[in-house]
Specification:
Radius of gyration: 17 Å
Strand content: 15-25%
Helix content: 40-55%
CATH class: Alpha Beta
Mean pLDDT: 96
Length: about 250
């Protein structure tokens, strides 16, 4: 292993197996980072790690469910055991939950969304920050949404979960602002992923959503990934406690 490879930053990406998470892992690999990618499907995860190694970087898949604190703790600890440190983390694991009006939501639909989107981010940051504070350095990027800034009829629970991610991000950033650690969020608008197809049902539903975007198109996962890499790395050392929108103007 070359000296450059040994000093390359170590990045953990949760929810890395599809969509924005997968694009982010590929973008970091091309940027020279060493990677731990995580998700819940072992076969898909192993294939992604092999693909990343094919780009010339060190990469490993570690299975974890971000709703389970023991698994999150183990994920972070195994990352440090494997690579010696954790320089950046992208907390991308998330779900769109069950769309529908408020009167149709239940305790179960609330928990299914908040356990992943909010508890998962909280637990991930808790253990990532534990390691980063010991190092005296690090960067965390939480994946929010344009719906973390505005409302959306028929998506109340998802919207609430992403507003919560924004609050967690800002509060954590203030807690560690003097420690050499930065905490930010990236807030995508409609992006061409499997999630948008599930969320809108495709067809007319997706066309309606696209029409709400001033740019009149959905974004690409690689566009979001490029912003995540910028925010997570040393190119943006004075940015902390912020939520950066990449949404075709939908929140303008």
């Amino acid at each position: 292993m070359t000296t450059q490879a040994r000093t390359a930053p170590v990045v953990l990406v949760t929810g890395a197996l599809a969509g924005i998470g997968r694009a982010t892992a590929l973008a970091f690999a091309r940027d020279g980072a060493r990677l731990v990618v995580s998700g819940r499907n072992q076969e898909v995860g192993d294939a992604l790690a092999a693909e990343l190694r094919g780009l010339g970087t060190e990469a490993v898949f570690l299975r974890a469910d971000v709703r389970n604190e023991d698994e999150v703790r183990s994920l972070v600890d195994q990352t440090v055991e494997r690579f010696g440190r954790l320089d950046a983390a992208v907390n991308n694991a998330g779900t769109e939950g069950q769309p529908g009006p408020v009167v149709e939501q239940t305790v179960e639909t609330y928990a299914a969304t908040f356990d992943t989107n909010v508890l998962g981010v909280l637990l991930s940051m808790k253990h990532e920050l534990r390691v980063m504070q010991a190092q005296g350095a690090g960067s965390i990027v939480n994946i929010s949404s344009a719906y973390g800034k505005i409302g959306a009829a028929g998506a109340s629970v998802y919207v609430a979960s992403k507003h919560a991610v924004e609050g967690l991000t800002k509060s954590a950033a203030l807690e560690v602002a003097t420690t050499g650690i930065r905490v930010n969020a990236v807030a995508p608008g409609p992006i061409q992923t499997d999630m948008i197809e599930r969320f809108t049902g495709g067809g007319a539903g997706k066309a309606w959503l696209v029409d709400q975007v001033p740019a009149k198109r959905v974004g690409r996962a690689d566009e979001v990934a490029d912003l995540i890499v910028y925010v997570a790395t040393g190119r943006s050392t004075y940015i902390t406690g912020q939520s950066l929108s990449i949404d075709g103007g939908i929140t303008a």
